[in-house]
Amino acid sequence: MASSNFTPPEVPMELYAINREKLVKNLRQHLSDAGRPLHGFVFLQGGEEKTRYCTDHTELFRQESYFAYLFGVTEPGFYGAIDISTGKSTLFAPRLPENYAVWLGEIKPASFFKERYIVNAVCYTDEIVKVLQDEYQGPGQPLLFLLHGLNTDSDNFSKPAEFEGKEKFEVDLTTLHPVLTECRVLKSHLELAVIQYANDISSEAHVEVMRRTTVGMKEYQLESMFLHHTYMYGGCRHSSYTCICATGGNSAVLHYGHAAAPNDRTFEDGEMALLDMGAEYNFYGSDITCSFPVNGKFTSDQLLIYNAVLEAHNVVISTLKPGISWLDMHKLAEKTILKSLKKGGIIIGDVDEMMAERIGAVFMPHGLGHLLGIDTHDPGGYPKGMERPKEPGLRSLRTIRQLQDGMVITVEPGCYFIDALLVPALEGSNTSKFFNREVIGRFTSFGGVRIESDVYVTADGCKNMSNVPRETWEIEAVMAGTPWPLEKTFNSSGNGGL
């Protein structure tokens, strides 16, 4: 019977109060620098419950991320306001009908939400206009800073709040989004603690899945074990994203696990598994990938590819510190993998020439990693004025920023054998010379390897928040039943000697 070393922690509402204070401070500075008056309200609309198409089946609700960041509210239908001049925060709760108490439970009074979310006031959504007009101290119509801006990961726009009576306010649609997004880039110590817990319980679940994997299982059984562990023992009702549980050739499908490829293959002896899974706790997430042989023993070809990726993973983490360019880290990971592949005879020629021809993108078409927080792909990757590279591989980078103390970012190099990329490269006049066709033929159905850890950048380096077996001997030991973390006396010979 599985168990856990972790207990779901209480998350203090102070976390969200600190986020609001940070926003007010940064927004005031921004307005001052622009010579603008320091009055008006930050005004956000929380998420709404949705039903499945035309039915009355209600989908499991998860709060809109910016609203969650500022208020920590778990219920749907709320609005929130922050007075820039005073810092006062007000929540507006939906006024629920009487029959809510019959079907959905007790109707909480405004005082309940005021105490729970530690805000200055709680009113109802039908009072928005009156409350904001009464509290406004500036000239003319009250000014609302609404959330509207581009998410550079999704190419979708944040939607500004909509409410009855909006026309009675002056509206600013351009100021809030970049300031609030930048606030989310650097994490407070309370945010880091929640992200660490999400990593702790997710790491433990990954180890549990690794230990229970046997040849002949379905991919979705691995997904199920992970979700069960993080919910049963970790209190994580949500996962950060749809689990990727890929085996064999499926592990070369970068976003496997979607509805058209639903983790349903039966895996076979001699194959690799690539499991990209992360739990979410109190809005904050984790994103961890483990790759391992399904039978618990690496073959020589599996060792070649796995160790190439592991070396890239380790060298990047050992290099990370404030001021380092993420673009340079991606190139470092690419070059490290190419050197290993050349040593293994898969590719031939000069590695610097390969880098110039973007051969690294043939084997790793995705970016090295992304900012992580309330969203798996946290916003802020490309602030205004920063352009996305256009070269293969580099254009998939979710950020090219220089690292800063307090950032949380994933390090996830990978090496894949994807026909859609390999065939054109093998036929290209400038690229075909780099490939050893005889050797690479052994890997046509290999799939791929990805190793992903979540790290936060410190003043003088970084800390790996994920705790799963990475060395091949660690993986084989854990899959054979050795407890994790391994005892200090355990060594790579597997005999437990000193």
Description:
Residues 11-155 form the Aminopeptidase P N-terminal domain. With 498 residues, this protein is α+β, with helices and mostly antiparallel strands. The protein has helices at 14-33, 65-71, 100-103, 110-117, 128-135, 176-185, 189-212, 219-232, 300-319, 326-343, 351-356, 360-363, 419-427, 437-440, 472-479, and strands at residues 41-45, 79-83, 89-93, 121-124, 143-146, 150-151, 156-157, 170-172, 238-239, 244-247, 272-277, 279-281, 284-285, 288-293, 408-411, 414-416, 448-450, 453-457, 462-464. Helix 1 (14-33) packs across helix 6. The longest helix has 24 residues, at 189-212. It is globular, with a radius of gyration of 25 Å.
Task: Produce the secondary structure layout.
Blueprint (H helix, E strand, L loop, with lengths): L13 H20 L7 E5 L19 H7 L7 E5 L5 E5 L6 H4 L6 H8 L3 E4 L3 H8 L7 E4 L3 E2 L4 E2 L12 E3 L3 H10 L3 H24 L6 H14 L5 E2 L4 E4 L24 E6 L1 E3 L2 E2 L2 E6 L6 H20 L6 H18 L7 H6 L3 H4 L44 E4 L2 E3 L2 H9 L9 H4 L7 E3 L2 E5 L4 E3 L7 H8 L19
Parallel strand pairs: 1-5, 3-4, 5-8
Antiparallel strand pairs: 1-2, 2-3, 6-7, 9-12, 10-11, 11-14, 12-13, 15-18, 16-17, 18-19
Helix pairs in contact: 1-2, 1-6, 7-8, 9-10
